[in-house]
Amino acid sequence: MSRIALMVLLAASALLAQQVPPTPAAQLKLEWNHFYDYSEMTSVLRSMEAAYGGWVQVRSIGKSVEGRDMWLATVNDPAGPAADSKPAMWIDANIHGNETQGTEVCLYTLWYLMENRERLPKVRELLSRCAFYVLPTMNPDGREHWFHAANTSSSSRTGKGATDNDRDGFADEDGPDDLDGDGSITQMRMRVATGGTHIIDPDDARLMKRVKAGKEGTHILMGQEGIDNDGDGAVNEDGPGGYDMNRNWPCDWQPDWLQFGAGPYPFCFPETRCVADFLMAHPNIAALQSYHNSGGMILRGPGAESTPEYPAQDVAVYDELGRAGEKMLPHYRYMIIWKDLYTVHGGSITWAFENLGIFGFTNELWADAQYGGDAGDPDDAQKARIEWDERMELGRNLRPWKALRHPQYGTIEVGGMAKTSSRVPPPFMLEELCHRNTVFTLHHAGEMPQLDVPSLSVTKAGEGLWKVRAEVRNAKLIPTIAALARKRAVVRPDMATLAGELRVVAAGIITGPVHDQKLERQEHRPERLLLPGGVPGKGRVILEWWVTTSDGLAPRGQFTFDALKGGRLTQALPGQ
Amino acid sequence: MCSFNRWMVLLLLPAALVAQTDRDLPLVQGVLQALQRPHEGAILLPVRAGVDGVLVALPGEVPATERPCVLVVAGLNPDHRVGVQVAAQLPQALLAAAKEDPALAECLARCAVEVIAVPAPDALEWAARGALREARAVPAPMDDDNDGLVDEDGPEDMNGDGIIASMRAPDDDGVWRISDEDPRLLVKADASKGERGAWKLTTEGIDNDGDGLINEDGPGGVDLDRNFAHGWKEGEREVGSSCPSEVASRALIEHVLQRRSVAAVLVLGWRDNIAQLPRTNDAAGKRAPNGLHTEDVAWAKPLTASLAKVLGATDGVEDTADGGFHQWAYAQHGLPAFASRVAYRLELPADSKLPSGKAPESLEAKWLLQSDAAVAQGFMPWSPCEHPTWKGAELGGFAPLWKVHLDAAQLAAAVKAQVLAVAAIAQALPRVGVGKLASKDLGAGLYEITADIHCRGLLPMATAQARATRTARPLLVRFVCGTGSLVDGEVLTRLERLGTNGHERLRWLVQTNGTLDVTVSTNSDRCGNSSAQLKVEVR
Ligand SMILES: [Zn+2]
Fold first, then answer.
1. How far is A218 from chain B (nearest CA, A)?
2. Is B491 in Cβ contact with A169 (below 8 Å)?
3. Helix count (H) and strand count (E) of chain A?
4. What is the pTM of this model?
């Protein structure tokens, strides 16, 4: 074998060594079929911070009602500019304590970005120009309570601030009780001699069937497991907390008595307040994703019919992102909150868009259709769900009826489905949910403004007079300033500045088509042009200055373009 | 040179805010000391930090902090000094009045009055410093004109007279024209009537940041009295980023929420809903009402009328919901809530005529006449002023705060009037209790117990708006059976309202073989507590 051939062979095997294995070992090994409780989540964040050398920084942005830290992970290239100076995406989850899997999606997103930051050019490119702020749970108390106390799939939506829901002067004194000690709140039924509304399904003893009107049943259903803890004659009427933090944002906010859970005033809860303070202090955030469950939805505002539809340019941005999401997320539909779901006053993503100009979605994670099969009518759906649970999870969620003694009702039976039986995916399907939603948010992040200056020219316009022209281009879909943000003046205008050895005589923005351009002059302070409309998505702006110099030579200095949501560009004037 | 009104010197002195003896103290400290000055035989308790003030009461059966209470708030707008002045003197004046008036003394032994006069201490000090000016917003760094610079273009006292006056200049594109009533006044030109503007108008100052605008981004941040969650004008400047967004406004709300016994509110400030009764407007659909609940007119009309009488309240304007504290207190919290401008001094002889010979129609023209007649004139004649960018600029117009300024005698009268107002509100508070508690022997050890629950006072147990907002607990009537057992009737009865004439009869059936021993107690947030016991030896 000649030396050359050997060298070629060696080079080829070196290349091979680089390519193999096709799935290199992860720096940090995590399970994606596992739901992380608050302390596990905290440890995961800490290990990410340790494993990814400066790329992930974890800090607490506040404390929950019960004093848990609100952990925020910032992802940014430690070798590059500070996160706050780049376009950034905010991702949060679990504002509703029971809507837990968004937290895993957040952790997966962090992990996926980090594990692939060298491997995948798209991730590398994204991280070179963007930062991420990830808050895996906005309701640590609600999460902790859902994991470690008996609940249904829908309870523990609230935070844990004591609330007197039944207005008797006592707070949280009569919540559900786990009578059979199985960790879930299921249903109570009682056999009755007369007045029964249900019978045990003759085809399937695990199911209850409502009798037709006029027929007598053998049982009555008595609601969720619990006793009358405070002796007021009502059962489970004042459980832990009792409010809804996604109704607590000052965006067409309506009070508690008009909309349950809104709280006495916007940002009355420490959790929502610290998030709002962070978002307001970070105008570089240009995209937002908030994870809830369930239903398979990609939701955008407005939240109420009384809020006018967003400007057409903004809707076009939303539509393009939302439709892309539908392709990435089977069984998910792109919807408008008030129109396609229900009215929400004071929601977080509508607040962020309408008051901070941040394009954002709420994803309702997990759709029942993902179980597979046809749901049919409600009775069949229940049956199908039990059968699915038996076949696919070997009965993990079924709680067969069992008799026990109730202090107020006497002998009753308790049974039904466990809290993990709906809204959250079965563990073996969690990873796919995490991945699909992660790539949707990365797609969204990838459409945050990306600015460059394709041309910057200086031309002589007369004796001692020069014309400086700069073109600023946005390669991505999202504008630096949303049309609604411009209308409501909630985002500082972009600024184009010319500074150096020159004096600006006149300046403005070039408008009109190529063949008929006009200079729209800014009369005051022409050296610092303000662009209240920013740079449109996949568009450009052209700026022009007429300048003189004290020595009669061509102007020297620099052009700066500063967009809060698009970053800052500086370029020296040509010909220096 | 622009004119200089001598009497304004008084307003410039921060010490003028507080009583004579406190003149040497810093402003806020002076106010607080005046508020909390001991008074023999009275209870004066500092209100918790963050909403500095005092709780005033006379000794009585129930601890003062647990009694129904009238909350008086001043100083939400730091430039409404007269409100702070009156509030500072209110506790002493109230206690002095109670010495003369047994009915008021009885009331103060049963209720309490809380006076919060300095919700935003720094703002009060700030507004009292520098040139005399309108400064409704508390200072907070804010980019009012959205140009990336913060507080870069506030007003200047250009002629050094210590006053930020109005400033006008001729301008073909201006929206103001000379008023037909009096050439000193400017009114907005109405294009629909073919009128053309010829003047531009702003406050005294220059274009500090060279953006072509004057005083568009001064140090003022948020108007606390537009920072509350009712009719809040989301997105507008000076209303804050939330409702509430400021430490002071949040502290005030939290105070009301935590002191559940606040039963009525009186705000001393720029706003007024006493001179003119707010219109009726029930909640329509998913919105809180902008105005009075229809059912609440029954108490609001007579009570407002008596307040207007004792205050001499005139010149009412529509009190439209826009984030005011008293608006929140009523519409979102269900409290009877009043706002008083404090200085009601626009009084003109019936046949007053302007120099033009016309009778005044607009409010401004009436004020102008009042100024013309006054020794210390409030209207500063327009006089030319050198201005770097406004050609032909003139300074003048009504002196800031003149319309709400009171001289010493007027101030003393205003304090007296507000004492009467507070007394009227406190005496109107509902008094709820268990009236007759009786038993009837039905034989064989069965007894029927009846209790009359009554509510006396002009104000109902709960306003209609309190019931709508579900912000006060219902009246809880608890029945405790010391011996025997309850056969029929509720252990706990919740009354959202009482029947006609504020009266409700409740019944229970008790079986006992020994002593009949029952206790009926009422418990509420805003009407205090009461109880009655019945003990009968039956065998
Ligand atoms: Zn949710």
1. 29
2. no
3. 11, 23
4. 0.93
Task: Report CA(A356)–ligand 1 centroid distance (Å).
Answer: 21
Measured between CA atoms, the residue of chain A closest to residue B478 is A232
The parent domain of residue B528 ranges over 431-536
Cα–Cα–Cα angle for A350, A353, A355, rounded to 5 degrees = 95
* Positive/negative CA dihedral, A523, A526, A531, A535: positive
Whether B17 shows a pLDDT value over 60: the answer reads no
ipTM of the complex model = 0.92
| Per-residue pLDDT reduced to its tens digit, B101-118 | 999 999 999 999 999 998
Total domains, chain A: 3
- What is the maximum span of chain A, computed from C-alpha positions, in angstroms? 106
Q: How far apart are CA A118 and CA A133, in angstroms?
A: 20
At A11, the pLDDT band (50, 70, 90 cuts) reads low
Give yes or no for A256 touching B (CB within 8 A): yes
* Residue A4 is assigned to a structural domain of this protein: no
Q: Residue with structure tokens 């500072």?
A: B88
Q: What gap in Å lies between CA A357 and CA A288, rounded to an integer?
A: 10
Output DSSP code: residue B296: G
Residue B135's nearest CA partner among B188, B75, B88, B87 is B75
Question: Residue B191: CB partners within 8 Å, gap ≥ 6?
Answer: none
Average pLDDT over residues B413-428: 97
Amino acid A392: pLDDT: 93
In degrees, rounded to 5, the angle at the alpha carbon of residue A258 between the alpha carbons of residues A256 and A263 is 10
Inter-chain touch A524–B211, beta carbons under 8 Å: yes
Domain co-membership, A248 together with A362: yes
Q: Could you tell me if residue A325 is inside a domain?
A: yes
Cα B75–chain centre separation: 10
- Measure A44 CA to ligand 1 centroid, in angstroms: 24
CB B148 within 8 A of CB B171: no
| β-strand pairing of A88-93 with A285-293 | parallel
Q: Which residue has the tokens 């109570």?
A: A188
Residue A152 domain-assigned (yes or no): no
Q: Which residue has the tokens 């407005």?
A: A302
Q: Is residue B228 part of a domain?
A: yes
Beta strand residue intervals within B345-409, DSSP E: 379-384, 394-398
| Domain membership flag for residue A534 | yes
Nearest CA in chain B to A167: B473
Q: How confident is the model over A333-359, as a mean pLDDT?
A: 97
Q: Does B258 touch chain A (CB under 8 A)?
A: no
pLDDT confidence bin for A18, thresholds 50/70/90: low
Q: To the nearest whole angstrom, how far is the Cα of B337 from the nearest Cα of chain A?
A: 17
Provide the H-helix boundaries in A447-564.
483-488
Same domain assignment for residues A352 and A498: no
- Any idea what the CATH number is for the domain that residue B462 is in? 2.60.40.10
Res B22: pLDDT: 44
The reply to whether omega before A294 is within 30° of 0 (cis) is yes
**Is residue B79 within 8 Å of B127, Cβ to Cβ?**
yes
Same domain, A287 and A431: yes
User: Which residue in chain B has the smallest CA separation from A524?
Assistant: B211
Residue among B284, B289, B286 at smallest CA distance from A306: B286
> Which residue type, as a one-letter code, is found at position B338?
F
What does the buried/exposed string (b/e) look like for A472-503 if buried means 16 or more CB atoms within 10 Å of the residue's CB? Answer: bbbebbbbbbbbbbbebbbbbbbbbbbeeebe
State the Cα–Cα distance between residues B508 and B490, nearest whole angstrom: 7
On whether any CB of chain B is under 8 Å from the CB of A308, the answer is no
Among B321, B340, B296, B221, CA closest to A255: B321
pLDDT of residue B378: 86
